[in-house]
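Hi there,

I know you've been waiting on this one. I reran it after we fixed the sequence typo, so this is the corrected version. Both the input and the resulting structure follow.
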Amino acid sequence: MENPVLTKNLSRLGRLGRNIIKRFIYSQMTIFSGLKIAFGKDQPLVQFTVENDPPSIYWVYRIKSSEVDTLLQKLGISSSFSISPIKCLGTDEPSYFLALNAYRVSGLVKGVRAEWSIFVKDSSNTPRYMIVDARSSVGSMDPVDIITKSSTVIHKREGNVIHTQIGEGEDAFVSTITLPENLQSVHSSAEWVSANDYIYWMNGVCDRTFYNAGLADTKQSLINNKDVVIKDGTFWAQFVEPEPVYVLKLNNAIEFVVSPWHNVN
């Protein structure tokens, strides 16, 4: 027996009417939501996408055991945070890591970005990302400097070569990755993924993030160190072992919805 509702075609006039209603109703909802945010009755939610070309790359370094306390002193972060060991891959033993991530983003911010992060425990005793240095190829915003000035951040793919440069001169981080034909697939640990739920900055402000399987079940590949050439003259090089424990390439785009500066009320 046919369902008369499912078999009924929508006329051009009916489609036009619904289009007008959609625009009107949802524009009013957006205006109302904006007013609630302006008066502190709601949190903003904005979208951004980590693009897959060039692929997002993580250089994951182990912090030298002799430098863990020194790094914390240099950072001067609040005593309410403690640096946390964490598993990067599911097969890992927990360790103190510093991760550098370079990627192209669209949405909330645009352009090429690079972020150095450590992992800290917050009041829930859960490992979280803490961004300790953020660079962008275009001007943007962050809760530490408010305005993030543009700087030299290059991250591009040419054929099977990924070239990354952050900064200039002797203080720059420069990486050249030559991708082989076959790469080993790996999976992040559950706690590495959930660390993204709240991303802290050094002044204690955090971004609340919501993500889908693009991050929770990220398709990523492990790049062998023999295929990577790195020159690291940055401030962060003194605290970590010379070679990264892992160089990871994300193989898919990741879409986030972010509540920026979530705990600033």
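Quick highlight: The mean pLDDT is 86.

Best,
R. S.
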